[in-house]
Model the fold of this input.
Amino acid sequence: MERFRHDLHAWLDEHRDELAPDYERPGTLDQHMAQMQRVKSILHAAGWMRYGWPERVGGLGGSPMLRTELGAALAGRDITDPGLFSLIEVLAPTVIDFAPQALAAEMVPRLLSGEEMWCQGFSEPGTGSDLASIHCRATPDGDPATAEQWIINGQKVWTSLAQYSDRCVLLTRTGSPESRHRGITAFFVDMNTPGITVAPLEMINGEHEFAEVFFDDVVVPADRMLGSLHGGWAIAMSILPFERSSCFWQRIAYLYRRLQRLVDVGRDDDRTAEVVGNAFVQLHMLRSRSRVTQHRLASGETLGAETSIDKVLVATAEQSTYDAALRLLPEAIALDDSVAGELWRSEYLYSRAATIYGGTAEVQRNIIARRLLDLGADE
Ligand SMILES: Cc1cc2nc3c(=O)[nH]c(=O)nc-3n(C[C@H](O)[C@H](O)[C@H](O)COP(=O)(O)OP(=O)(O)OC[C@H]3O[C@@H](n4cnc5c(N)ncnc54)[C@H](O)[C@@H]3O)c2cc1C
Done:
């Protein structure tokens, strides 16, 4: 790992100018997306995007922790937006594990090389925390066991980057509504299929990072099913360990960088020491926990409910960091980003969502209480 890190940083130093954003900071979401895809393409051509991914999907093999090193290095150097980049970690491992092998071998390199973007179609209006109650329906064109295609009707919401995406990992209802998690099937859907409408939604920070997605008689070939019929819950569950381990490392690197920036711009007084110190403790706690989780993942352990602890810690650390920013740079947050020439305001606003996306803080605490501490069963 030391050797990898050393070589990676040497290479990043050497290619600093080529990798730097070609727009004036802070830039728009369109520019961040274009920058990320450009950087992925350069890193893929040089091999760095392929380390830690299996050879059967065009990777160079090795521990998944090589991927976390790359993500952290990019975030630490402000080369790409860490939130956007981390979506690779959320979706690619699941497609590798559940898609037919030829499909994964064809698609994963496109994601890693910046040729494509993918999105995650899970949440629906009224169905976020209680994912087992989704309604978006897939109906077989014929007998379910032999149908060559499925027809999808329904709606998703809060689908991050849907308007930039070429494919979607989509959860659909294939059993009766009462079947709950036993009647869900996942599909890997081309976003340019007729019948799909994407309507971007404005977030509190003014960006249009997520969208409503409507499915109107959308025809999907049966070989785009991920996993088995009615086996979609396994896909939803398989995403969680990655969403809460390898994914966090780059976020942590970025938050350290933001804290350092607060130290640089803050005054040398007790107030700065107190608020930055508090955020630093939260961040360090998260970092220690997350490293253990990554080691467990890398050694092949199956991660489960205990990753809810990591999720609570990342949300707490993120919000503490930006609470510190609010106390030390109130004008940058209250007015607009241009005050400090950085993204403090929109990052502060985005940090409020850290206790919502990927499972809310309340739901994580329920899981910790019920499944880890045995404090009573789900109702
Ligand atoms: C920035 C962002 C990006 C997102 N990206 C995606 C994406 O790409 N794909 C996707 O599918 N989804 C995405 N989501 C949606 C996200 O997964 C949901 O918002 C989240 O799961 C919560 O669901 P909900 O919004 O329906 O809220 P609800 O489930 O309606 O919850 C409302 C409130 O009730 C509380 N609550 C609910 N159930 C319980 C309970 N049993 N016990 C205690 N409290 C409870 C919640 O904690 C919350 O405070 C994103 C969300 C955000 C904010």
Residues 2-116 form a domain with the Butyryl-Coa Dehydrogenase, subunit A; domain 1 fold (CATH 1.10.540). The pocket of flavin-adenine dinucleotide is lined by residues 119-123, 128-129, 158-160, 210, 353, 356-357, 359-360, 362-363, 366 (CB under 6 Å). The chain has three domains: 2-116, 119-236, 244-372.
